[in-house]
Amino acid sequence: AQSVTQPDIHITVSEGASLELRCNYSYGATPYLFWYVQSPGQGLQLLLKYFSGDTLVQGIKGFEAEFKRSQSSFNLRKPSVHWSDAAEYFCAVDFTNAGKSTFGDGTTLTVKP
Amino acid sequence: DAGVIQSPRHEVTEMGQEVTLRCKPISGHNSLFWYRQTMMRGLELLIYFNNNVPIDDSGMPEDRFSAKMPNASFSTLKIQPSEPRDSAVYFCASSPTGTRFGEQFFGPGTRLTVL
Fold first, then answer.
1. Residue pair A91/A6 in contact by the 8 Å Cβ criterion
2. Nearest to A100 among B42, B56, B103 (CB)
3. Regarding predicted confidence, which is higher, A100 or B92?
4. Chain A residue closest to B90 (CA)?
5. pLDDT tens per residue, chain A (113 residues)?
6. pLDDT tens per residue, range B17-53
7. Would strands A64-68 and A87-94 be described as parallel, antiparallel, or unpaired?
8. Which residue from A58, A104, A111, B54 has the least number of CB within 10 angstroms?
């Protein structure tokens, strides 16, 4: 079955430290890949997406993600975390390129001062 | 654009009552999604429409739930009768075609509490 795995339920980092959130998916072809962020009490907002081309994609708020076909991964990174980045992050995968995404369970990021 | 609009933002009702959640997608978007989010089950896709037609309703939990999209600018999610286990945040999202295909724009959600 098609699935999206975010192995880390909760991550804590210090402000200014680097961040990497993991996302793995099950499937053979190259799907469409997304990262969303959800601040408390808010809906989800798109950070970045990958459809094709350069496997390193840049998003909003200084985030980037790298698609690695061999590992079926699309990890999210940020070189220096700000306190305002504390939120829940969701990886989403459109396996059939038809506009419907499967979401991971999310990773909650806590930022220590 | 005002973004995806959902109403009400909060709803408190008693078990057995009918609940109707409303969504206005972003103008020009042709896909609309209803999600439910709880601590226990995370984010679940309930149903999605394309060009006002329901495409996949496999996530609708049971017959008490129904969704309609009578036109491109309005959708409802109805629960009748409601039960305490329906308490959750319900999100509506819409998605365009073209260069932003696949990207979903979420509304602020409706927090439903069934007593």
1. yes
2. B56
3. B92
4. A43
5. 789 999 999 999 999 999 999 999 997 677 899 999 999 989 999 999 999 889 999 999 999 999 999 999 999 999 999 999 999 999 999 888 778 889 999 999 999 99
6. 999 999 999 999 999 999 999 988 889 999 999 999 9
7. unpaired
8. A58
- B98 interface with A at CB cutoff 8 Å: no
* Beta-carbon-side half-sphere exposure of residue A5 (alpha carbons within 13 Å): 10
Find the closest chain A residue to B100 by CA distance.
A49
